[in-house]
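Let's practice the habit of predicting before peeking. Look at the sequence and jot down your guess about where helices and strands might fall. Then scroll down.
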Amino acid sequence: MKKVLSSSLSVTHFRTIIPFSKSLVNVGWLFFDKIFRMATGMIVGIWLARYLGPSEYGLLNYVNVFPLILAPLASLGVNNILVSEIPIQNVEAVDRLVRTTVSLKFLSGLISFFLILIACNIIHASNQQLILLISISSLGLIVQCFDAVDVYFQSIQKIHYSIIPKVISFSLTTAVRIYGLTAHYHLSFFIAISICDILISYLTIYWIYLTQHGHSIFSFLFDKAIVQRLIQLAWPLMLAEFFIFIYMRIDQLMLKYLADSHELGRYSAALRLSEVWYFVAGAITMSFYPSIIALRAHDYNGYLNRYQKLLNILAVCGITIGIVFSILANGITSMLYGPEYEGVGPILSIHIWTGLFVFIAVGTNNWFIVENMQRFLLGRTIMGAVVNAGLNLFLIPLYGAIGASVATLLAQLCAAYLTNGLYSRTKEVFELQSNALLFVPRFLISRLRQIL
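Done guessing? Here is the structure:
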């Protein structure tokens, strides 16, 4: 009897460990990709910032941000829907879902691209060079349609099929960037190389997917029923992503118009060091989310406990990064960017704390989808966007890039955390986030009590 019981427990334990181990492997691949990109991209990006100087670097970031106004229309907000749908559907249904999503996003990306061209020709009618630069950057709106396959591989715990092509493409294009820096190439060259990187990696990933499923490279699918369902589920997320752009990126556009390219360049230099850490939240959440979802149907308390552990980890990461960069901001920015970027340190020491609220927001975004509360996501994001735009309008003329940092931090605090405490249906998430934010102080206090 004891042997049977022991054997049963071992099998149960083994089955529990398998998905957990796959999650760890998935996290490992994601971290390898992101850390490789972060390290290499940081070196080349800082080199590029020093090469261009604050004014041209500010122009580069403006050109990259301008097309993002319509990125939500291009993506349609369907990636989060895919994350929730792929684990619960059969192989054939998932294949139809993924291929239809690629076709749908290609069409929406094409529409977004032409709308950006129209807007650009109206706003910058007298600046043909700027129109050309934005046109090149806007091609990314079309290419991003293939990231649906990337989401698929992440959801089935086979992320290496995405990571390897990305790393190879990034390595090749990084070598070309370095050549461009040594040869003193024009700004347009570096924008074009970024698009080539995305194009090469995503086309390769899509080819791998089609090959695995026995489809031709020219095989397209557009299932109207799937399209209607995706749009019905995702339109609140699409609008939410638009307002996310407002409270995460409107500061850069407003700095360009309310200040100048030089101030935008200093702010962009701070953002490069501040936002590079956001991948940590996405990697952890994406890889552990399937196991969290699996608990909801049969063990709701376990589901909440697992969510709490996830948010605790994210909060610890956010607080640690915030403290380190607040202390070392001046020294780090002076060493990396040089005297031309004087004053970036205080901007960074404020903006870095935005990451804490980004982390706990990323950790709970899929909770709202599972609970069928997409409209609430839209509502809280609109509030954050209004707060950010309003504060930027007031603070940028007075304090420049520092004002933009304060506005973004307060907007993220409102959208990611405080709004959850205003509604009865989201009090559960608010409590989970509050416990996570208090986890580090409580831990330190308990340790001090033990010592004393």
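How did you do? The radius of gyration is 23 Å.
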